[in-house]
Amino acid sequence: MSKLIRLTWIPVTLALGACDVQVQDKTPAEYPANHDIGMYEIKATVTRDALVSPGSVFMFGLGDKQKVELTSNRDGSEWHGLYPVRCRASFPLQFLAIWKLQGLETKRKLVPPQPREIRLIDPPLTREAPSVDTSGKSPKGGWEGSVQYKFVTAQNTRITAAHIEPLSQDAADVAAAKPISVVSSFPVDAPCGTPTEIRVSSKAPRAHGNLVIDTDYPAFPHWQTKVEFAPK
Q1: Contact indicator for 19, 49 with CB cutoff of 8 Å
Q2: pLDDT tens-digit map of 141-172
Q3: Count of domains for the chain
Q4: Are residues 178 and 209 in the same domain?
Q5: Do residue 94 and residue 145 come from a single domain?
Q6: Domain holding 159: CATH number?
Q7: What is the DSSP string of 199-231?
Q8: Neighbours of 212 (CB within 10 A)
Q9: Contact between residue 144 and residue 25 where contact means Cβ atoms under 8 Å apart
Q10: Residue ending a domain, choose from 94, 121, 148
Q11: Hey, CA dihedral for 177, 183, 187, 190, is it positive or negative?
Q12: pLDDT tens track for 77-112
């Protein structure tokens, strides 16, 4: 009897051990933030044990109150989906695998056990503003122009201050920056994805310098943009 028990136990154990799936997260650790599209590819590979048929497996990407259904290639080994997110610097990601076994219960697996964060990298802000045309007679208060900034990984950004600095410490650059001043009042609120202007003016028809802004935006607490005034 003991020999019979040992002989029958081996195939049962093998059968129970052949009903799992292995999931590997293939999603990159970071993506460039793209506010216009607001969708990022998530992907994983799946390896099935012998008793798991391809059509019985379903895959989902999980995040903050998000459940994204994934689609697979023909043999069910590669899975892809698009995760929607805007105005955040990262998003959490887990994969949920669900599969059924003939005559047995539905099985589930979360990979990884705890969500990992996918970083969204900010595009650079404006480095150089279009030149302000100073042709013709000077308006009262000088010629005015603006620099636009767009912040895409925070719901709201506050530009707290701004000032003008010379392009360099050369005497010519220092003199060229003196006629420029910042016109905008602060703070300036910049909603996510909305181009927001900081206005500058010059009392001279030819001037250039760096507009330096201070913000509460973690990615860019300070930023400088070249501004120029010149007749066309």
Answers
A1: yes
A2: 899 999 999 999 999 999 999 999 999 999 99
A3: 2
A4: yes
A5: no
A6: 2.60.40.10
A7: EEEESSSSEEEEEEEEES-SS-SEEEEEEEEE-
A8: 15
A9: no
A10: 121
A11: negative
A12: 999 999 999 999 999 999 999 998 775 778 999 999
3-class SS letters over 76-141: CCEEEEEEECCCCCEEEEEEEEEEECCCCCEEEEEEEEEEEEEEEECCCCCCECCCEECCCCCCCC
Residue whose tokens read 């707290």: 160
Q: Are 152 and 123 in contact (CB under 8 A)?
A: yes
**Rounded alpha-carbon distances, angstroms, from residue 62 to 29, 30, 58, 92:** 16, 17, 13, 8
Q: How far apart are CA 169 and CA 95, in angstroms?
A: 54
What is the phi/psi pair of residue 129, to 5°?
-85, 155
Please tell me the predicted confidence (pLDDT) of residue 180: 98
d(CA 198, CA 183) in angstroms, rounded, equals 8
Q: Pick from 60, 95, 121: which residue ends a domain?
A: 121
Cβ-based burial of 167 (10 A; exposed 0-12, middle 13-18, buried ≥19): middle
Closest CA to 48 of 97, 10, 93: 97
Alpha-carbon distance of 11 to 17, in angstroms, equals 10
Contacts of 221 (CB under 8 A, 6+ apart): 214, 215
146 and 196 within one domain: yes
Order of all β-strands in the sheet with 132-133: 132-133, 222-230, 207-215, 156-165, 188-191
| Distance, CA of 181 to CA of 130 (rounded, Å) | 17
